[in-house]
Amino acid sequence: MMLARRLLLQRPAAVSCRRLLTTIENQSTGTTGERHIFDRLFQELAPTKLAVTDSSGGCGSMYVVEIEAECFRRLTRVKQTKLVNAQLKEELKEMHGMRVICTVPSQI
Q: How far is CA 106 from the centre of its chain?
């Protein structure tokens, strides 16, 4: 059974970006690849939730990305996935594959 490490972010609405970035930088979990993908998507898409898992057992050939972002609202699932893939264009060249799960924040 493969062990997968996860980087997980849930961005509370009341937390400032500066404080949130400091919290994320202090996390020491995750592989180098997971951190790189996490940081890239966090900077580009401003997600409210983000989890990156190396599902290849740590070798970096396969990832699962679970992302929730407001920028996905009113986009089809295909366009949401293309938006994520566009942010990781260079990284995808080095991977075997990536599973992307996109969601939109719920409105309460």
A: 18
Copy the structure tokens of residue 74.
Answer: 């009113």
| Length reported for the chain | 108
Q: Are 58 and 6 in contact (CB under 8 A)?
A: no
pLDDT tens-digit readout, 25-44: 434 467 899 999 999 999 99
Please list, in sequence order, all residues whose beta carbon lies within 8 angstroms of the beta carbon of residue 75, skipping any fewer than 6 positions away: 83
CATH number assigned to the domain covering 6-103: 3.30.300.90
In this structure, are residues 2 and 30 in contact, taking their beta carbons and an 8 Å threshold?
no
Chain Cα centroid distance, residue 26: 17
Q: How far apart are the first and last CA of the chain?
A: 39
Domain ranges within the chain, ordered by starting residue = 6-103
Q: Confidence band (pLDDT; 50, 70, 90) for 58?
A: confident
| CA 58/CA 85 separation, integer angstroms | 21
